[in-house]
Amino acid sequence: MEILKSVIKRSMFIIVPAVVAAAFFFEPRKVPLGIFMGWLFGILNFRQLARNVEGLVGTEKATLKLVFLSMTRLLALIAAIFFLIYFKVVNVLGLLFGFTVVFILILVEGAKVGKSQ
């Protein structure tokens, strides 16, 4: 959970200025909302993954339960993204940008934790 907190803190320094800049220079609604929703989906997905792994460590049949929870989370994420894009609520590139920021920060923070241990 340390990595999650660090990713949230660091990503706020990237996402908030990006949302503000996108509101002024691009579409005032779709692009900033896409960036924010991409960030939010990335953070929620990572948070739920961390909780699932922590809760299932050392239990019997953990693999089956982890696969089921992961597939359920993935299905919900795909459905939410599909509806946002289908009804043209968000900009696809903004959504991708928000996801990418979270993904890169997870890699950076994971590398820092791995290097320190």
Fill in the keyword field for this structure:
117 residues; mainly alpha; 0% strand; flat
Overall description:
The two termini are 16 Å apart. The relative contact order is 0.19. By secondary structure, the protein is mainly alpha-helical. The model has no long low-confidence stretch (mean pLDDT 90). It has helices at residues 2-25, 30-56, 62-86, 92-116. The longest helix is centred in the middle third of the chain and has 27 residues, at 30-56. It has one domain (2-116).
Range of helix content: over 70%
Rg from Cα: 16 Å
Number of strands: 0
| Portion in strands | under 5%
Q: Can you give the mean pLDDT?
A: 90
Whole-number total of structural domains: 1
How many distinct helices?
Answer: 4
Tertiary shape? flat
Q: How far apart lie the N and C ends?
A: 16 Å
Structural class: mainly alpha
* String of helices and strands: HHHH
Largest sheet: none
Q: What ranges have pLDDT less than 50 throughout 5 or more consecutive residues?
A: none
Instruction: Specify the oligomeric state.
Output: single chain
Give the topology, please.
Layout: H1 2-25, H2 30-56, H3 62-86, H4 92-116
Helix pairs in contact: 1-2, 1-4, 2-3, 2-4
Short structural summary:
86% of the residues lie in helices and 0% in strands. It is mostly helical and 117 residues long. The protein has one domain (2-116).
